[in-house]
Structures are given as C-alpha cells and as structure tokens.
Amino acid sequence: MKDFFDALKATEKSTQIPEEFNYFEKLIGSWQIDYIDRSIPHVIQGEWHFSWILEGMAIQDVIILPDYEYGTSLRIYNPNTHAWDVAYGYTGKIIRLEAQKQDDRIVLTFIDDKRRKWVFTKIEDDYFHWHNVTEKSDGEWFINAEIYAKRMEYVHQS
C-alpha cells in the first residue's frame, strides 16, 4: 500500500499527454522567485515548486510567498480541448483557469473573467517570467503583478 505522497507524485509525464501540449514541463522543479505586486511597495522573495503527479497526468505546484500568500495549483491536461484545466487555491479563494500556448507564451485565462490572465514568458532551463495581467478595453495589458524566477541549485552531499 502506498502512502499519500507516494500515490500523488510521479517522476515524468504520462505518454497520454501529446508532446505538442506538454507546455509546463520546463517548469518542473524548484525556483527562487521575486514577486512584484503593484499594490505592495516591496519585492517579496519566495519559492515556487512544480511536480508531475497522478501518474504523470497532471502537474501540481506550490507557491510560497512568506507573510503574504501560500497557494497551490493543479494543472490537468484536457484531451477534449487540447488545453490544460487549472485550479489555483489559497486561503479563502479558488480560481479556475484554462491554459493554452500562444506563440512562445503559456496563457492561462480566468474562466469567470476572460480579461484576466496569467502569462508565462521567457521559459528557459534556469529562468522564467510570469505576469498577472488584466486586458484593458483597448486590448493593452495592465500588469497587476509579476514574478522573476531562477531555478534553485542544490548541493548534493555524500
């Protein structure tokens, strides 16, 4: 019998997810982040961890912004829409989004407000940039918050 964490975690994506829709794989791992919110006068340093779960059919992440917000997202590939269904939860709130690739960006659109989006850009092996934006009536994006992420380096001890 597996315990909860052994049953949850997976080491790789399921072969049932087509490679062309494997948008989030480069994010798997642990990241040091700088969170900048337009309503807060200082940068919050935190962590963001991504892992395959549920036999590789989903990705879960945990974001840690000390003294501000702790949250988790569940990202599940939907073969009917070729998009990812996403739920993000933190104290008192759950947000539903749909993620699709647009050019070199991953755009997560809020289900209840199509003008609100979360956007991953510049996804590299050791860096990515994330925006929380609101689309204005003229089509321009107003940046509410953003994250600059650098992959954490681990020192292995023998």
For the structure shown, list the relevant keywords:
158 residues; mainly beta; ten-stranded antiparallel barrel; 1 helix; 3% helix; globular
Q: Roughly what is the average pLDDT, rounded to an integer?
A: 94
Give the termini distance in whole angstroms: 30 Å
The percent range for helix content is under 10%
The spatial strand order of the largest sheet comes to 1-2-3-4-5-6-7-8-9-10
Per DSSP E runs of 2 or more residues, the count of β-strands stands at 10
- What structural category characterises the helix and strand content? mainly beta
Strand content: over 45%
Question: Radius of gyration, Cα only, in angstroms?
Answer: 16 Å
Q: How many helices? A: 1
Describe, in plain words, how this protein is organized in 3D.
- There is one protein chain.
- With 158 residues, the chain is mainly β.
- Helices cover 3% and strands 55% of the residues.
- The chain has one helix and ten strands.
- It has one helix spanning 4-8, and strands at 29-37, 44-53, 58-65, 69-78, 83-90, 93-102, 105-110, 116-121, 127-135, 141-151.
- It has a ten-stranded antiparallel β-barrel.
- Strand 8 (116-121) and strand 9 (127-135) form a beta hairpin.
- It is globular and about 50 Å long.
- The mean pLDDT is 94.
Summarize the structure.
This protein has 158 residues and is mainly beta. It has one helix spanning 4-8; strands at residues 29-37, 44-53, 58-65, 69-78, 83-90, 93-102, 105-110, 116-121, 127-135, 141-151.
